[in-house]
Amino acid sequence: xxxxxxxxxxxxxxxxxxTVSGMIFFPIxxxxxxxxxxxxxxxSASPSLFMFDWTLENYAEVLSRxxxxxxxxxxxxxxxxxxxxxxxxxxxxxxSMAFVQTKRTKNLLMWMLSTKMLPPVxxxxxxxLLFRDxxxxxxxxxxxIVMTLINLPIMVWMLYTYFREIPNEILEAARMDGAxxxxxxxxxxxxxxxxxxxxxxxxxxxxxxNEAFWTLILTAAxxxxxxxxxxxxxxxxxxxxxxxxxASVMAVVPILIxxxxxxxxxVRGLSFGAVK
Amino acid sequence: xxxxxLKQVTKSFGDVNVIKPLxxxxxxxxxxxxxxxxxxxxxxxxxxxxxxxxxxxxxIEIDNQDATDMPPAQRxxxxxxxxxxxxxxxxxxxxxxxxxxxxxxxxxxxxxxIEKAAKxxxxxxxxxxxxxxxSGGQRQRVAIGRAIVRQPSAxxxxxxxxxxxxxxxxxxxxxxxxxxxxxxxTMIYVxxxxxxxxxxxxRIAVFNGGIIEQVGTPLELYQKPVNQFVAxxxxxxxxxxxxxxxxxxxxxxxxxxxxxxxRITEEKGLWTGRVGVIEHLGSETFxxxxxxxxxxxxVKADGDCKVxxxxxxxxxxxxxxxxxxxxxxxxxxxxxxxxxxxxxxx
Amino acid sequence: MATTQSRTLAKIMLxxxxxxxxxxxxxxxxxxxYFSVLDYNLLMxxxxxFIGFLNYEFFxxxxxxxxxxxxxxxxxxxxxxxxxxxxIGLAVLLDQAIWGRNYVRIMVLAPFFVMPTVSAxxxxxxxMNPVNGLFAHFAEFIGVTPIDFFAELxxxxxIIIVSWQWLPFAALILLTAIQSLDxxxxxxxxxxxxxxxxxxxxxxxxxxxxxxTAVILIETIFLLSIFAEILVTxxxxxxxxxxxxxxxxxxxxxxxxxxxxxxxxxxxxxxIANIVAIFLMRLIGKNLEG
Lengths: 276, 346, 290
Prior knowledge:
By secondary structure, chain A is an all-alpha fold. Chain A is built from 13 helices and no strands. Chain B has 2 domains: 4-226, Rossmann fold, CATH 3.40.50.300; 237-341, CATH 2.40.50.140. Chain B is built from 10 helices and 18 strands. In chain B, a hairpin with a 3-residue loop joins strand 15 and strand 16. The longest helix of chain B has 18 residues, at 166-183. Chain C has one domain: MetI-like (MetI-like fold, Orthogonal Bundle). The model of chain C has no long low-confidence stretch (mean pLDDT 82). Chain C is built from 13 helices and no strands. The interface between A and C is large, with 97 and 108 residues.
């Protein structure tokens, strides 16, 4: 009796959960499906989920119309470059805050986070003018610099929460064992914190990949990553649903897969250690 | 070699003085235990000796060399931490090898030393495992192994057994004592457990509120505690303290009687009380006796003691076993152990 | 809890991060402050003369500012409300024993990884389009007039899109928080005779407060500067009905090339963000530390 009841409630909850999550996922699923339709099927008044002539012509056309591969490479270089550069700057800072705590550590963290709250529009014009004067507009290096800086507070904070979970005693043991600061960080801290560092890197790649404000404003043709590439479909090409879908899938899928891989680690890091 | 001398050493965090000016001489080869309640400064002092904390003032000498400002690595000391602090990403072998690699010892010699240490600590079969795959006791031994291979001039232990369960703790206690006998190296051992202190130490330093109350052999501390704090801290169950009215010419403010020094008598003794909770341990029995005007006294009796809850019993103690404390809680030697020390004190 | 040596080292290691962030904050901010008191338009090269607080006066008395200010509040508040309520519901649902929980998790999380430009375009064209959108097809199917979302309900439409993007984030963080709840607490409540509702109200919700704080903080940081979603859907219209402050300043400075006016707006945005930040930091200081 009791077993039957639990099975019944499990079934109900399962149905409910799959329905809700199906609805949330539907726009993505629909985009993927539409990308394989012909344009006339895509806008059909009685749309079909699977029963249509599958075609790859949209992908072919998107690829031929714009240099997708260049945009893709821009996205990879910018998001990976900014994340690696960010790690390089953030790791020492996080080490300091996690293992040499002072009364000011908390305030410093709060201050760093508050720079993240500085609205980008507040500094938009000077950055634009500075970039223009230094010839950084529409360059990869320019975007790498901006992405590094806007995500630095989040990186420091994420690394800090991961480092905090490593007992100070392990680093002290290394110090007693004769390790200098270089050995302490490279041979002890970094290997232990590797999962946290990896997820920090991943999350920042994702954030930088999806960042739209600065990429739309600071790039034109040369350094435009996928966010800008896809924005060019806003209108009137947006009315060609199948092609829009194909382009969207190509822009989103790489990062979607990366995100699914790291989902568990991500939650912890993103909540600033508030949940474990 | 491994003598450590502390001269007028202090430590303060901001306005808080964690260690008040303190002198201590630790002799080469001795096993000294720092014991005291939590927050008494014993761990801080150990970390200052290790070089993990700055010394606010005073000097620390290791083998007659001023080491006050030396970084930890140069002091030639090894430390075993409460959490063991093993490197989780390295095998047992690499954990033990780590200090040797830092010192750029030749690989062949490293291998030799690891084998030797592993044999000594029964770790040979586990050398290729990660710390996560070991039991608490094994981890503890790895931590000790990592300390041994460096051949330090002194070992520092920071509450190393507090994460182990009771039976394992007794075993490790013996192993560490054994190790001390065979290595004959200075060991400084911090604990809050007075049983560990009593069983392992050559000498004990009792800490309280940033000062050392008394330094001495376990028996000295048990028999001749200098004040009420030491008397109460050393010995289990705790010593009973009984306040008395001050009489003219007698500075005694309170008396101290250890539970094991009470005798239950037929005739009226010094105290009479009603028996409360009785704890049978088999080999002995602890009685909690309520005495009017005094409070509850803990009494150690024989294992087959026939007293029952609610009985009225008479208690007495030999005069030379009763400690006398003055109004500041300081032991009055001439009354407590009958030696005429008053001449030397004056 | 360290030596002077390691403290010195710590300062050195903090230096790059702190100085870079300081520069990133101070230099452009000072420039913005300077531009904001100039008559500076990129289309009219001139003396860029000093005009005092005129730019601020124009910006603050512009009806568009008031409208976009409230739009910003509505946008942030609306999305926070939807994502937190929906997130708690989803988290409780996903915490139950269900078949295929991993697949459900993956599906729920997916929208978070979709870049804002893509999700805005997909929603705008394929769902909310009044002629060919899926919603329009559905409305016709059940016999009602399709809604022209971006003409009739522009701000709400954007709130829906942004909520869809952030719901997964809230749900996943709250789910993780629920899963960290000590099961013994719930069992104790069972023994004390608590029903499912009182268990939720008295045990689960209080346990979630830290996670909710974190969600509010992080979402607000990102929501205050929503931009791409507006740019590719409504371009702020019709009129200013879906313009937030970020977008307003963007149009002023980069579309009308009015650097002075845009800068004044930027400073206003910074001030608003600071007020919000102070509130948030108080909240976190209390809730995230413990």
